[in-house]
Structure formats: structure tokens, C-alpha cells
Amino acid sequence: MTDLTFDRNFEVTPGLAVHVSPLVRRVLVNNPSPYTFKGTSTFIVGSGQVAVIDPGPDDDAHLAALLEAVKGETVTHILVTHSHADHSPLAKRLKAATGATTLAYGAVDAPPASGLRLDASIDHDFVPDQRLAQGDAVGGPDWTLEALFTPGHMSNHMCFALKEEQALFAGDHVMAWATSVIAPPDGDMGQYFASLRKLLDRDDQVYHPGHGPSKRDPLPLVRGYLAHRRMREEAIRARVQQGARSVDEIVASIYADVDPKLHGAAALSTTAHLDHLVEQGKLRKVDGIYEAT
User: Fold this and answer.
1) What is the C-alpha separation between 224 and 204, in angstroms, rounded?
2) CATH code, residues 18-216
3) Which of 50, 111, 126, 149 has the fewest CB atoms inside 10 Å of its own CB, making it the most exposed?
């Protein structure tokens, strides 16, 4: 089995635009949490005529930092990987300030969240000016971004491939600092597995995720993600076969080595795994209770 190791070496000053490659600048939002790590990363692509990827939460200081970073330049496109509340809300104000077009897969139809609300609660107000489909591309004088549809973390999740640098803006699909939370009903574990496998056929040389450090030679990380998720799923199935009936009971056992503050997020991903096992016919769900087949 492929080992999954994390990189939490990420010392970045919020609000400061820093080049991570010749064509890419990162500006970190000051919104650290157990779910966003040091904060959400906004990326500026190109020079002169630029694209902004994931403007972030509705934050006055971050808007000011982005406008300062692109002073003297023209923002032509604002791309959003997905409409979680730490990625998309600032798109509206950044569009108003720059006149740029907002682009994404589209809005989501999931109902407002009840119960646990992470920093990844859904931004139901976000609707892009232009919807993107798999393979659609936009560009500027020195950059080309191609849309890669990667549902799972959210039903509208997209990554964006920067052709000129063989780089992938991975949003929350694959991160180097931690695994991604899959939160039903909008998050879907079956789709997530398929979207991970889609990356294995690509030759991207570096991932720039929405949180944490960039990752070079990323395919071993993707294989590690897949192996980790398969391991979790088999462990969850085994616990149900052994008599576990509640999600909380499964989480307490499977995630015993995880900070209890993160058990809420673990419960969401566990539910997603359980639903995926039902879809595969490996478990059944009767009156809201998961049982062995």
C-alpha cells in the first residue's frame, strides 16, 4: 500500500503576494482554522492581464491585499474551484472592483447545511457569469487555464490546469497538508474516488492547492490519497460487520488517533464512505441504520 505523508511546512504571511513560480503569485487569507490550515490561498496567474483563482471569503483585508497585488494590471478572469464559503464569496466584490468575468462549474443545488457547519459551508449566493465544462479553456497573453471537472469534495468542484507550467490549481481536491473532507449531501465519495483516479492519467508537475504548500511530483500523493481512502472504507465496513451501528461509534474507533476537535469532520467523511459502500452493495441501509449485507 502506498504511504500517505503530509507536508505542514507552510510559513506564509497573510496578505502578502509571493511568487510561487514565474507565472503564479499566492496571497493567503488570514482565516486559519482546523479545516483551512493556515488559511485559504488565492492565486494570481500571469502578469499585465491576469486571472485570479479562488478569491476567498468575504474579507475586507484580503480584498485590499488582492487589489494592491494587481495594481496597474487588469484582472480579466476570476475562477472559482468550488463554492465553499472560504473560497468563493469575495468573487462578487472583486468583480465589482475589477470588472472581471467570474467563471466556475456552476452553483450547487444542495440544501443549506443543518447540524455541523465547517468553514466549508456552502456559499449559496455564488453564481458564476460563465459556466465551465470539462476541457474548457480561458487565457491571457502568457497563460492558459483548462478546466478539469473533479466532483467529490463538492458537486461543482473544478481544478484548473496551467498549460505553460504543467501546474494544477487543485482547490480542495488534493492537498499536501491533510486529506479533504467529503461532506454529504453535496460531497460524494464515489465521485471523489473517480476524480482522484482522473488525476493519475495526467502529467502535471506541481499542484497548488487551496490550503497549505504546493506539491511537486504530485502523483505519489494522489496514489496515497486513494490507498488511504480504500483503507478507511474497508475499516469502516469491518466495524459495521462487527456490530457498529452509529457513525459516532465508528468514528471513535476508526479515528481514535485524530484530534477530537476534528471528529465532526471525520463523521461527515465516514457517512460519505458508508453511503459509497451501500452504493457498491457492500452494506445496506435499513431505516437509517447501516448493516452488513
Assistant:
1) 16
2) 3.60.15.10
3) 111
pTM, full prediction: 0.94
Domain residue spans of the chain: 18-216, 228-292
**E runs forming strands in the chain:** 18-21, 24-28, 41-45, 49-53, 74-79, 101-104, 130-131, 137-140, 143-149, 158-162, 167-171, 206-209, 215-216, 283-286, 289-292
For 250-266, what is each residue's pLDDT tens digit?
999 898 888 888 888 89
Closest to 50 in 3D by CA, of 22, 24, 18, 75:
75
Cα-based distances in Å from 246 to 241, 251, 267, 286, 291: 12, 9, 10, 13, 10
The string of pLDDT tens digits covering residues 85-125 is 999 999 999 999 999 999 999 988 655 544 444 545 899 99
**Residue 6, CA distances (Å) to 10, 146, 247 in order:** 11, 27, 26
Q: Calculate the CA dihedral of residues 51, 55, 60, 64 and round it to 10 degrees.
A: -20
